[in-house]
Each structure stands twice: as C-alpha cells, then as structure tokens.
Amino acid sequence: MNTLDEARRAIQKEAEALLELARHMPSNFEDAVDLIFRSRGRLVVSGIGKSGHIGRKISSTMSSLGQKSFFVHPSEAPHGDLGMIDTEDVLLAISYSGKSVELLPIVEFCKRIGVKIISISGHMTSTLSKNSDVALHLPVIEEACPLGITPTSSSTATLALGDALAISLLSRRRFSRERFKELHPGGILGRKLSFAFDVMRKEIPLLSLGQSMQQAVISMTEGKLGCVGIIDVDGKLAGVITDGDLRRNMSDNLLSLSVDNVMTKTPVTISKDVFLVDVLVMMESKKITNIFVVREDGIPIGVIHIHDVVTEKIV
C-alpha cells in the first residue's frame, strides 16, 4: 500500500468511527447536557496524553460558546491546582481506557467536595465510569493506526462527542451570533460578525425630492461613492441614484431632469444591526455596489460601499 492509499485508509477509518458514534450516541447524553446546563459553576476538563489535548480543545470550544470552562492537567492537580475547582463546578474527565491513574486524584477530590463528574471513555466497567455521575461511553472503535495502538479514531470520536456537548449547550442556551461576536472581537471570525454600523459611512450624500440631476451629479462626484440618496419632506429615503441610473437615463437633457424622474424608487436598504457577512451576500445577490443603512422609520443614517465590506476581509 502506497503512502496516499495509507493516508486515505486512515481518514476512512476515522470517518467510520464518527458514523458509528452518530449511530450509537450514549443514551445518557442528554443527562450530561442537563448537568452542565443546570450547573451554576464552570466546566472543568481534565485528561492525560492525547485525551488531555482533546480535553483542552473541548474546553476552549465550550468557552467560546459561552460556557465558562478551563482545563486542569491531572499531573498538576494534586500539586495545588485542585484549589481551582469549586463545589458548584462540573468535572469532565476524559480517558478512553477509563483507567488513567493520573486522573484518580482529581476524581477523588471532586467526589469528596460534591462536584458532579461526567466522563468520556470507551469502557462501561472502567474505574472512571464507575466513579462518574454521568458516564458517556464511546462505541467500539477501530483505531486508524495500523498497529491498533496509537489513539487516532478514538481521539477523533472523543473530540466529536465534546463538540456535540458544546453545540447542544449552545442550542439550549439560545446562544446568539451577537453573543459570539462579543466573545470573538478579533480575527476573521470577529470581522465576519461585524455589523453594518461598524463600517457604514456616516457622511451621506443626500438630496431632496425635486432637485435637479445636475445637483445629483455634483453630489455623487463629491461623495466619491457613485450614488446619492433622495429623501422626502420627512427625511425618509425615497430613492437612490447610482452610476447605473445615469447610464440608463443618459440623454441630452439628463441634467435638466428632476431626480424624481431618474431615481430608483424603493431601493434595497438594511438596518444598522445586520451582520457584515449578510450585507455582502445581499449586495452580491442584488448586484449592487452601494446600500443605504436606515432607521426603522426609514431615515438614512449611513451608506456602505462594497469596498467597505471587502476591505474588512470577511471572505
């Protein structure tokens, strides 16, 4: 078997492990979700070796989705880190064998102070399972490692089960994209969840109904956006004139026309709290390069050019 075939076989084995997990989810999975959801404390995650690495990722995912969580290394726990754990916390202990002796001190401590314990392992009768309030058992999994030794498929399945817990909690708490944005202000995720208000230009090129197209062209040139908004006597957006409207209405008497005759009526608009990624989708689907941001009463408060969205690098 060549290298590429071996790689494909490994990926196939891990994919099969995930499908097996999906078909045989632990029957007490909801009990684990309820335990974390009802806890007034934090989710403490612990594991040794590969399980520890997976545990760190699970804890990180939980934190990013609004569940307060941290990882405690089982080797450091009996040397003072047990003091980080409070009686209202929940422990998520991970060990595929369920026999990791390094976990014993933290499990015993949690049982002694009344901390509820959730475990993820592959053996129902293991020491860890027997000492858990909710023992989540993975189905029989064949490792992708040809020697059947290195944690591969089992690690992938453990991570997937941890993600399933996190997503279930997200759904239970009705965790919103707004809240996600608060927890992810930086990086590509933060930019994707920026709002229209964050990038809109507040100096808006505006004219009133009845004004001439000559003034519209001047306003569009000064605004450097290729558009001008037309407002009615109440200050509400009544229409928009763009470069495209100029081309479609090009004639010898264009400049003598009223903006009322050229503007696009009932233009596409958005509110200030629309996510920037949704603004881009809307602009691409409508094939427009500018979009006005309006209040609930229709009064314009900003305008976004497609370059404002692209420069945020949300794609």
Describe the model:
It is a single chain. The protein has 315 residues and is of the alpha/beta class. It folds into 2 domains: 3-175, Rossmann fold (3-Layer(aba) Sandwich); 196-310, CBS-domain (Roll), CATH 3.10.580.10. Helices cover 43% and strands 17% of the residues. The chain contains 14 helices and 12 strands. The chain has a 5-stranded parallel sheet with strand order 2-1-3-4-5, sandwiched between helices. Strands 6-7-8-9 form a 4-stranded mixed sheet. The protein has a 3-stranded mixed sheet with strand order 10-11-12. α3 packs parallel to α6 (153-172). The two termini are 39 Å apart. The mean pLDDT is 88.
SSE layout:
Layout: H1 3-23, H2 29-38, E1 43-47, H3 50-64, E2 69-71, E3 90-94, H4 104-113, E4 116-121, H5 127-130, E5 134-137, H6 153-172, H7 177-183, H8 187-192, H9 196-199, E6 206-208, H10 213-223, E7 227-231, E8 237-242, H11 243-248, H12 259-262, E9 264-265, E10 269-270, H13 276-286, E11 290-294, E12 300-305, H14 306-310
Helix pairs in contact: 1-6, 2-6, 3-6
Brief synopsis:
This protein is of the alpha/beta class and 315 residues long.
Question: What are the defining features of this structure?
Answer:
4-stranded mixed beta sheet, 5-stranded parallel beta sheet, CBS-domain, Rossmann fold, alpha/beta, 14 helices, 2 domains, 315 residues
From the N-terminal CA to the C-terminal CA, the straight-line distance is: 39 Å
CATH superfamily of the largest domain: Glucose-6-phosphate isomerase like protein, domain 1
Task: Kindly estimate the percentage of residues that lie in beta strands according to DSSP.
Answer: 15-25%
Strand adjacency order, main sheet: 2-1-3-4-5
CATH fold-level label of the largest domain: Rossmann fold
Tally of separate domains: 2
Structural class: alpha/beta
Supply Rg.
29 Å
Shape: elongated
Low-confidence region ranges: none
According to DSSP, the number of beta strands is 12
The CATH class of the largest domain: Alpha Beta
Number of helices: 14
CATH architecture of the largest domain: 3-Layer(aba) Sandwich
Instruction: Give the proportion of residues in helices.
Output: 40-55%
Order of helices and strands: HHEHEEHEHEHHHHEHEEHHEEHEEH
